[in-house]
Amino acid sequence: MSVAELIEVTRRYGGNPDYVLAGGGNTSLKKDGVMYVKASGTTMGEIDESGFVKMDQKALDALWTVEYPEDKDEREERALEDLMKARLEGETSRPSVETLLHCFIPFKFVVHTHPALVNGMTCSKGGQGWAEKELGDRVLWIPVVNPGYILAKYVKDRVDERLASGQGFPDFIMLQNHGVFTGGNSIEEVDLKYQYLMGKLEESIRITPNMAEEPVDLAVAAVLKKAVQKAYGPEAGFEFKNIRQCKEWLQSKEAASPVFSALTPDHIVYMGHKPLWIPEGGEAELEQSLVEGVSAYEGEFGKKPKTILVQNRGILSCGVNAKEAFLSGILFRDAVKVAVLSENFGGVQFMPQDKIDFINTWEVEKYRAKKSI
Ligand SMILES: [Zn+2]
Question: Per the database record, which ranges form the Class II aldolase/adducin N-terminal domain (predicted)?
């Protein structure tokens, strides 16, 4: 029964784009010493039992007593090895990168999501102040910490401090520039907590994004498509859109600042850590700027851009294939929503640069990005 409930709750939150996009988010169930956790890169909305990895709860608990090396690469590698060893025999999938965050949460069900509404707050200058005022001691606020073992250990230490001071386990673990963890001993409890959180956030929203699509110039689109194929190869994925909210932003690189850096790890993984800006121009100039711009971007960051802002024309989402371009577009539009919603909480706050660099080079995230295309 519990596993069926886990599948139901995972599909329901995962199938709702207000909560989860692409391969983001994850859920777990603890039952009879076994933790079922979403496999890495699996899509929540379509999950079945095979999308979960069964982990030995005792082996996971034992991880907290291991002294890992100081060096961050060695540390993450060793912790990942131990995580893989904590799988029950016969399990072949890789558990979610956030498994370690699930295992010490005492609730039977844990549902972790990245809603735009929540991230409008977690990616804002006033987010922590809002959360602590509106949610009181039901929330534990976690600043940006590199993902992996180090994040889980940081959260666990904060939780332990809280418990030692006599406070209860938090209902909401709010990860700055990332999303929220909540849980319950029944699905009803999980739903009630999400309803409470979303209701509180909605009460504070005055400014909302205008996501209406506007037509693009088809001649320009054709030129850009040709240039994208030149830069990415014949299989390249291509999507060119115009959104009302971005009209003023596309006037200049400065005006586009609300979407010019990374909001959360998922935005980095799917739409790239930073868009490429292409100035307005005639057909030949546009093609040249795009091809040269992509090559300069690749020279600087070691990868091609997945989001290209074309001045006064539209937003180009691209990638090695159609799926990569499609996911990039979805995450870009989410970034637009998050950036606008953050205005209700004091304005947008991007991830710190060193944390962006870490994700860009993180092996686990590369695996996840590859798995979903
Ligand atoms: Zn997450």
Answer: 5-205
User: Whole domain around residue 93: which residue ranges?
Assistant: 2-203
| Ligand 1 centroid from CA 30, angstroms | 19
- 161 Cβ contact partners less than 8 Å away, ≥ 6 residues apart: none
| Chain segment 148-206, per-residue pLDDT in tens | 899 999 999 999 999 999 999 999 999 999 999 999 999 999 999 999 999 999 999 99
The verdict on 143 and 231 lying in the same domain is no
10 Å CB burial of residue 50 (0-12, 13-18, 19+) is exposed
- On whether the CB atoms of residues 279 and 312 are closer than 8 A, the answer is no
- Give the Å distance between the CA of 20 and the centre of ligand 1: 9
Amino acid at 190: V
**CA 96 to ligand 1 center in whole angstroms:** 9
- Our CA angle for 323, 111, 124, nearest 5°, is 75
Q: Which helix (H) or strand (E) holds 2?
A: helix 2-14
Q: What is the pLDDT of residue 93?
A: 93
Co-location of 132 and 95 in the same domain: yes
Nearest to 214 by CA among 190, 188, 181, 249: 249
348 contacts 123 by C-beta, under 8 angstroms: yes
- CA of 192 from ligand 1 middle (Å) equals 20
